[in-house]
Amino acid sequence: MKIAIYGYGNLGRGVECAVRQNSDAELVGVFTRRDPKSVQTASGAPAYGADQILDFKDQIDVVIICGGSATDLPKMTPALAKDFNVVDSFDTHANIPAHFANVDAAAKEGGRVALISAGWDPGMFSLNRLYASAILPDGADYTFWGRGVSQGHSDAIRRVPGVLDARQYTVPIQAALDSVRSGRNPELSTRQKHLRECYVVAEDGADLKAIETAIKTMPNYFADYDTTVTFVSKEELAKNHSGLPHGGFVIRSGKTGRDGEHSHTIEYSLKLDSNPEFTGSALVAFARAVVRMSQRGDSGCKTVFDVAPGDLSPLSPEELRAHML
Amino acid sequence: MKIAIYGYGNLGRGVECAVRQNSDAELVGVFTRRDPKSVQTASGAPAYGADQILDFKDQIDVVIICGGSATDLPKMTPALAKDFNVVDSFDTHANIPAHFANVDAAAKEGGRVALISAGWDPGMFSLNRLYASAILPDGADYTFWGRGVSQGHSDAIRRVPGVLDARQYTVPIQAALDSVRSGRNPELSTRQKHLRECYVVAEDGADLKAIETAIKTMPNYFADYDTTVTFVSKEELAKNHSGLPHGGFVIRSGKTGRDGEHSHTIEYSLKLDSNPEFTGSALVAFARAVVRMSQRGDSGCKTVFDVAPGDLSPLSPEELRAHML
Questions:
Q1: Could B256 and A17 be called an inter-chain contact, meaning their C-beta atoms sit closer than 8 Å?
Q2: pLDDT-derived band of residue A143, with 50, 70 and 90 as boundaries?
Q3: Which of A101, B62, B131, B216 has its CA at a distance of 20 to 30 angstroms from the CA of residue A179?
Q4: Using the beta-carbon criterion (under 8 Å), do A96 and B270 form an inter-chain contact?
């Protein structure tokens, strides 16, 4: 399959790494809104201007769109889905139905397959919520995130006056995990599930107490959590907090039996050194499925719920049955 | 969906419990090779003779076949797939390709959908091996079983002279789990991955030393493992070892990045109080998908790899996207 990467930030670079690990995948090029002459790709693949992509219509099987969910993807995915099979990682959960409708109309108009919201959450975590709830209808599921870097929360701290740079880790609380794993189906508040660790570089002479208070009382982002603020030097932030690790847990407990006498726990967890590289790897696997669905004559918008798992693998159905079932 | 249960042992009873938890499912009846007058179902559903099932052809959407993999399913599933949509839990991994071919021919002849090898292994564990390997091609996966009761190993012990009854637990070894989770992708021998705990009721005056030696040196079943043998009274076996718990772990570690510098671990685990009730619950979810695939005009043999996850859920695609993605 011939893949194009549209948008070349952390996620685009993650996709680029993943393409090289899949022998059935080939990178046509990277399409960027920057001046393509200024972009040196890690793999040596050519960089083109985003507006040149239609010239490559016959050379691309699927476009992996690596833009942000806030403003990029709501425009990019419907626009590209008219002319290309596409995959995106749209992750604003509340806006998925609207995004789906827009992309579906465009993909159907163009006779293309568009898969939205692939990755790990939404993505693999969504799949695990679905599988577990279908098998254990009498139960409850819980999603925990972390320990990992939240870019949105890190950005929110950077907007506080006196802050030069920051990194925020979302951390699941062990007692909550233990309580969920016990099968007791506890009611857990926001504060009981996660805490937030902030590493902050302040301007010289800034009022550290004021910064800490501004962070801890910030509505939506921090006010509902137990939050720690640690001031560090620019060098320390670069040395100890430059990675983008993430991960988390999806746990469902449920009961079966004549009278609910048997308890079961299904747990899925991820421990990721690099959030964008793992997400990029998932996008390439789902891109393979999109190409296959398109080759079979399908069209319209899809999600991970619509993809038969076998379509994700480079192995044939016969190989999968013989070796992986 | 109108479900028939074909075979009424532990697994058939597990399916019966699961049907009651799914409001879109209705149990037409239980079909048994025993005298149906001698069978009292837990839910009060009617019991019929296995040979009566063709009389119900128009009243059944899907038959869940609850027979053994050694001799029952290789005959039952192809025979029933000519006239009914069916689901089975065929679990002899090495014979899956042959079983698939037989069932596929029968289901295509009858224009029916047949799903084989559903449950948790094969089943959910297979799905997790596939998803994880598709996302992280540069990696290795490991499956651990237990702590749980192996019926096959318990039966093998019961065949040792002087043994009245026995229960065998397969136990994953913690050090092996830890080593796999570390991302080191270790090479592990059979002995390093699992140990086997045996609880044995011996005949009065039996040679306990001889029984222990016979178990520990039994080829295929125990000789390649560290095995413990504990003699217990009949009462103790009934009191402490009458359940059928099981579970296990599928773990894949893999690398990404320009030079494999980032490591990722995907882990799926099950902790089950009742193996047959959990398996039965999975069979009912996959039965829903079979009915939907059949309604769309599909036919032939399928496995869990061919089922779009959304088909497992009673929720509509719109509801799934809005609430579970």
A1: yes
A2: very high
A3: B131
A4: no
